[in-house]
């Protein structure tokens, strides 16, 4: 599902929602939601949620939530939550 002026690219078996003005790229078997004017890039088997004006990049098998105006970058197998106006960078297997 892609909103107005958004770009959505998804692999097979994935479920993705890109809201207005957002950019979402996801590998297979992933679940992603990109808020308005946000950027979300997710590897396979991951679950990602990015709030408005946020940037979220995650490797495979990870679960990530980036709130409004935050930047979250995570390796595989990690679980991360980035609050509003924050920046989070995490390696693999981390919480």
TrEMBL record:
Residues 25-39, 73-87 have a biased composition (Low complexity). InterPro entries: Ice_nucleatn. Residues 1-95 are annotated as: Disordered. This is Ice nucleation protein. It holds the Pfam family Ice_nucleation. Coiled coil: none annotated. Residues 12-24, 45-72 have a biased composition (Polar residues). PROSITE patterns: ICE_NUCLEATION. It comes from the Bacteria. One of its GO terms (cellular component) is cell outer membrane.
